[in-house]
Predict the structure.
Amino acid sequence: MKNWKEKIIRLLLVASASISILIVLSIFLFLGKEALPFAFDPGLSALWGTRWIPVSFKEELFGLLPLLTGSILVTVLATAIMIPFGVLGAVYIAEIARGPERDILKPFIEILTAIPSVVIGFFGLVVLSPIIKNIFHLNTGLTALSGAVLLALMAIPTVISISEDAIRSVPKSYKEASLALGAKRLQTIFSVIVPAALPGIIAAIMLGIGRVIGETMVVLMVTGNAAKITFNPMSSVRTMTATIAAEMGEVAFGSHHYRALFWVGIILLLITFGLNVIAQKVLKRYRTVE
Amino acid sequence: MVINNPKVETEALNFYYGATQALFDVSIRIPEKKVTALIGPSGCGKSTFLRMFNRLNDIITGTHHKGRVLVDGEEIYNNHVNLVELRKKVGMVFQKSNPFPKSVFENVAYGPKIHGIKESSKLMEIVERSLKAAALWDEVKDRLSSNALGLSGGQQQRLCIARALAVEPEILLMDEPASALDPKSTSRIEDLIGELRKNYTIVIVTHNMQQAARVSDYTAFFYEGNMIEFDTTEKMFTNPGNQQTEDYITGRFG
Amino acid sequence: MENQIKDRIILWLIRLFFYFIVAIVGYIIFDIVYNGLSTLSWEFITGFPRRSGAEGGIFPAIVGTAYLVFGAIIVALPLGMASAIYLSEYARTGRFTSLVRLAITTLAGVPSIVFGLFGLGLFVIFFGFGASILSGSLTLSFMILPTIIVSSEESLRAVPMSLREGSLALGASKWQTIYKNVLPNALPGMLTGAILGIGRAAGETAPILLTVAAFYLPRLPGSIFDQVMALPYHLYVLATQHPEAEKVLPMQYGTALVLLLLVIIFNLGAIILRNHFRKKIQW
């Protein structure tokens, strides 16, 4: 009697746990289902082009390269900003800041992860982009740089928190050995502790990059959305995420354009999935070494 | 030494944590309504052995065993054995007292409730009887509804004994029940064991030799997963048959 | 001596980097609060929008967000708790368990706009729910599922093993042990996760963009198959799509402030709850 009940409960729990697997599979399945017809007509080679002009009376063009370079430009810039701030921030929190300073400021910075991206985007639109426009004497402040600054800001708490864990899990003996040899505090931090924590810090940066590539609202609101191939930080760009968000609302279901947007989604999914898997592998190996 | 009609019995019992063997061919016959002490240096397998009798090692992943464990002559590692019935019959008290973060009353009533007793008068009766049997009633009768985590260490351990008694077990397993307690609380627990021996078969793990000598009728000495010797406590402590036992008891190692 | 001065300077540089971030966070919050406060009024919160959001209030967007969040949490909470119980109490190391874990970390990393595409493909089109509260809630629930699973599992694992052993040794079955002795002690932690999930669901824009959100719909929804306005989408529309975006700046700030307050309240609540119970339960 009781055994029955136990078995049913166990079954229900297994089923619930399986749902995560099911969701991941069906994300791939349904994105694929909507995207696939495009592979036969007009064919995948249409995606490999330098111009994205999905709505046109003459010829519709679905070249993803401008979107890809847009995402890459914003991501590279954001990463360049994120790394020094994130890593030094983690060093500061883990090794330099003391008691109350750390206890108050760490959660304060983590508020950033809670602020909705649309609010950050709004702030970028009304505060940051006018500043960038004035500093660099541009026609518009809606540039790749504006987006990158905000995206870096959003990813920094993640980078800080995971890097801090990595720094903290460096065995105390390393630090003591270095200090005992007469090394200074900073020398110890940068020649012993940070190198020992490097795998964890790299994983942290990768997860940060994953966040940056996948973020939608900020880039939609502040990068200007011009689909062109450029590597100028002061230029407007259009990222993959922003393209989906901006165009999916007005597209005809089942059209080439509609299916091309699903391809954009698949590419995004594969990139973030890859980054995630590698980051987890690095973190896992790192944790088992401890 | 011959023991007839043992309450608990093992035959050639081997136990493994993954690839590590923790028990080697242990065979023992534990008599009914006596106190049997398991002694030996830490890591010798005595606690593992104790946890075989209520199948609590089952919950550790990656373990398996060979050989037989019998309670009242019945193999307990058998697919159709009812674990609930087995653990009702074989109560356990742990090394570190582990009262649930509930009231004193709820702690003792936990077992009976699990086994289907619902009327509050009946529960009250069981709680009172169990707390009295654990010599705790006088100290807690006025605060049955306060949280058990507020009791002293010694009281918490006696509460855990009361909790085990409430399901009316026949066998009581005690895993170093006094190791975390002060001397006064320890002696109260030992007095209590002296009382309980009349009605229960008690198996107690201890690394305190004086304690084994004071409370037990029989003693088994374990070393590196083997049971080296098993005899009456009197014989073990006055005239052990094995050199290793003698070395351990006289404090030459361990 | 010279070295020491160099060290000092570097130390201060690091400090500067860190405080620069702190200052920016502070400024964002200050800017939104300072500019939004003058718009915030009873009428703004309880009123309906007029002239496509240029005047009036944001009540339908608040209600819409509340519906979406409620819908998301009643789906994600039971599923997430059950998954966490499985992972913490039942799962043995093996292929299925590592597959579940891989799925959860994958889900946590899926970009929110991809969740939107998925919701569009599955709920709006395949199941035919259309752009509706139902589609939006379900999409959001999948998105917050990993948050809830991870924090629930953490709080289950924080319950000491001795409580499980004590209960099992009394003859309680596995489920009785979990239900009566483990869950009550893990519940505060699980609720913390749920609240964080609510905060996240309330602020997300990209997934609801494609599955539910209405541009301008100054009335309350009649059923779960209706579209609704939602706070984050409303802010996006006012800031970028409104013909007089400059003039409605106060409305934008007001909406941003309400949204900010909402998520900060949820997060603070979660932190307070966690600290309260951490203090209370001492093993």
